[in-house]
Amino acid sequence: MDMNPNLPGLRAAATVTCLLAALPAAAQDSPLPDLFSDVIDVRVVNVEVVVTDRNGNRIRGLQPGDFELHVDGETVPIDYFTEIDEGRALEASGEGVGTVPALTPDEPVGTSYLVFIDDLFAIKQRRDRVLNRLEEDLVRLGPADRVAVVAHDGRELTLLTDWTGDRVDIETALLEARERKSYGLMYQYGMGSERGDKTRRSVMAAAGAVRSFANAPGRKVMLLLIEGWATVSDTWNFRSAYAAASAGVTLDRLYGPLVNAANLVGYSLYPIDTPGFQGPPGPPIAGFGAGAGVAPVFAGSVGGYGVWRGVPERRFHNVLQFLAEETGGLPMINSFSKSALAETAADTRSYYWLGFEPPRNEDDRLHRIAVRLPGHPDLRVRTREHYLDMSRAAEVGMLVEGVLLLGGSPGAESLEVSFGEPRKAGLLKLDLPMTVAFPLEDVELLPVNGQWMNELEFRIRLMNKWGDQAAPAAVKIPVVIPKEPTRGDFFIFEMDLKIRKREHRFVAAVYDPLTGELLSTRGTVGPR
User: Percent of the chain beyond pLDDT 70?
Assistant: First the structure.
């Protein structure tokens, strides 16, 4: 058992020790002033807008005055505007805002393609067919485009290549992806809760990947090579589809975390129908089909979602449509899966790039986005449909999960964790005394009423070898010391951690709300 790593120099330094119960942050009374709850992280929201006529042809040359941007039904100012035409920036209005760069006119604007491969439900022959076509279409990439590739097997997320524009590196990553084992035949039958749990695992892995690659340059696109992400039986009742869809329980509950993560950091999702064509299509939906990048696969609409004549495929296509529509992308369904990269590259070459700075309440609420062209009623607009006003606590949780899946470290690696002797806590469960220490020079303390204070937040996330995760509630750490800390001073706190009786990988992090910085560490804990 990896229970007692040494903490070199810890006890020799001047220390402050705090004992904490493992209680949620919201449940702990804070002795600190209100100023510690008023730190707001302002972020720009990027809105990529595609404008077409009734036949799906792109409309170019529109100006900022042609657009109206509405959030929750209210008009908001557009802080940034530029047109991207065939991969090059036209004249922009104003300077760059937040994560939207100030683009040089006539310079190439790159697209960052994050390729996510779900091996958990993949059938190898189908997956490899799509990967081969992706490799063939690498010639469609522009000079400023770049690609990163990750794969998920139900237990961990593997980085096959970080961002690169080198075609040899991308081809090597795709070759490695084809050589990976796939597990789809194990889950091809049955749609019970176990399958739903495993689907959620894959969805959360994709959300973690999006968050881990949040700072990609240029237009951000995620290509999802997925299979089996259907509306599972415990979240979909076809006979009451109207009620279920209007209540938002059919798709949001399972796939919402990925949509929210993508909209939060500005990714458009382009999910790929890995199985490809499996049945006769119905008539096309208006606005889709040739020239729009999506095959005519739906036979009608129920509660806002398409209905496929064959129930299993309809369930899968519903998910693809949902992921794309909510984030401003397109679903690569049926024959379009054979040219997914080429279609995506063509779809992201020309668009309008809008940015605005929303008020931040950090209340984890969704806000609807609508872009209108009041002077052009004959034109059609496609863009992401909402953004999430995510709290910093939720963001930190996503970041820690992404690190647990992908490796690396969130923030400075100056956190130190040790575990004491475990105590039985029920059937196959253990209580672990845990000691956490960090140097006070790595956090910000403010002088308040003759003392030095801050209120930090500690969280730990664990994952076993089967990919099951545990996320104990965040814990507030009130830091109150009588004098200004000096170099070498540590803060130590202790708490109990409840785990199942098996080995886990873990990532632990302390968040400083005054600076927005993280201190972290990672390791293993529990019996092997």
Answer: 73
